[in-house]
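Input sequence (90 aa), recorded before submission:
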Amino acid sequence: MTAFLLAGLLALGGPTLYFAIRSREFRKFLAGAFFVSGGTQLYLFLANVSVPILGTDLVVTPAMNGRRSIVHLALFLVTLYFGYVRKPTP
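Predicted structure, token format:
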């Protein structure tokens, strides 16, 4: 299972990192996506809602949603800075 997860991470994460580094517009898109995702995770944490994972018997606990919201909001701040605040270099 770990091999499949690493292969998926490389297959999906590699192109995402490439476009995030090369395209300012893509970083702006990621800022919005991380903002929405972080806000949703924070809401689920504050509302103390457990979320079942579709097709499995696993459940994401509110504590895990809280940790995920912190990570997503931190990534939002990073992509916000590099997408909107920092001036592009020629």
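Checked by second reader. Strands lie at 51-52, 59-60.
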